[in-house]
Amino acid sequence: MNHSADPYVYLSYENRDVLTGQCLLDLLGFPELNRTALIGLKHSIANQRCHLSSGFQQQEEDAFYRLPLLHSLTCPARAYFREFNSVFQLNRKIKLAGCAVIMSADSKVLLTRRTETLSLFPKNWVFPGGRLEMGESLEYCAIREAAEETGIDFEISESHFKYRGTTVAVTPLFIYESSFPCIGPPKAQHLIVFFTINLNFSSNEIGLSLQRSEVDYAVWISKEDYENINRGIDFTMPGLHYTHENAHISSHQLLGIAPNQIGEGVAEGHKHALDMIYQQNH
After folding, report:
1. How many angstroms separate the CA atoms of 99 and 114, rounded?
2. Predicted pLDDT at 229
3. Which residue, 129, 151, 205, 206, could crosslink 99 as a Cys pair with Cβ 3.0–4.6 Å?
4. In this predicted structure, what is the pLDDT of residue 2?
5. Which residues form the Nudix hydrolase domain (predicted)?
6. Residue 29 confidence (pLDDT)
7. The pLDDT of residue 282
8. Which residues of the chain have pLDDT under 70?
């Protein structure tokens, strides 16, 4: 795959590309907001650009979303600018990604653990997702990545998404500016659009086959599981290893924002998705 040709973020009102090292909330005119702002996002498949704005008008020929944009509470791009009054800017465009929050009929969501050998966010628990490829819609990207990483047998085309013959609803949830590393000058940034994907099957009816190069464990968690994890209760959940062996996932593995005390935890943007889905207030 030639990632140099991947779609990238484009700020329409400034008529220029956004490069790694710039805080998107600051650039969009929200320097006073610590966490979130409602913005417009228009993805043009024709020219493979994603336009961001604090006041977009919808255009029928392009995919348009009006969604909350969030970033880390310790956004490294903003932190660097405020400390040194300059932008730590790399000549590297911010890439786009889609992320799939898969929910089963028994109201559980699927989390996967990123393989420990990955250079970005190893051993973080995340929702399936990955980078947008040329010619894709963001919805298609989220479903494709979910199918690749989890082995869920989606029927995918640009016009529809199905699972076992049933149409799958793909609903945008929010946008997240992801930076790596979490502390210090950012070396990589992605703009991730999270989508909820509701399946009409219980979690134990949905077959999984994990992509070893990307993820090594998976677990379905319920609202009750998530609440108990946040309370620090020690318990285990049935999960799956990439070898297809059953696994016991400890609540401590999912406790807090990654990296936690045991080097795991949920990636910050993905934890916010859990909070939104299960309506947690922290």
Report:
1. 14
2. 98
3. 129
4. 46
5. 92-248
6. 86
7. 46
8. 1-5, 10-14, 55-62, 280-282
On whether the CB atoms of residues 52 and 28 are closer than 8 A, the answer is: yes
| DSSP of 194-263 | EEEEE-SS-GGGS-----TTTEEEEEEE-HHHHHHHHTT---EEEEEETTS-EEEEEGGGGSSBSS-TTS
Query: Considering only CA atoms, which of 140, 4, 128, 18 is closest in space to residue 69?
Result: 18
Joined tokens for residue 194? 């999270």
CATH match of 3-278 with 3.40.50.1000: no
**pLDDT tens digits along 199-256:** 999 999 999 999 999 999 999 999 999 999 999 999 999 999 999 999 999 999 999 9
Instruction: Name the residue ranges covered by the structural domains of the chain.
Output: 3-278
Does the predicted model carry a pTM greater than 0.70?
Answer: yes
Task: Write the DSSP assignment of 15-46 as a string of letters.
Answer: TEE-BTT--HHHHTT-TT-SSEEEEEEEEETT
Side-by-side strand order, sheet with 154-156: 154-156, 161-163, 166-167
Residues in Cβ contact with 51 at an 8 Å cutoff, skipping those fewer than 6 apart: 10, 11, 12, 40, 41, 42, 43, 44
At 208, the amino acid letter reads L
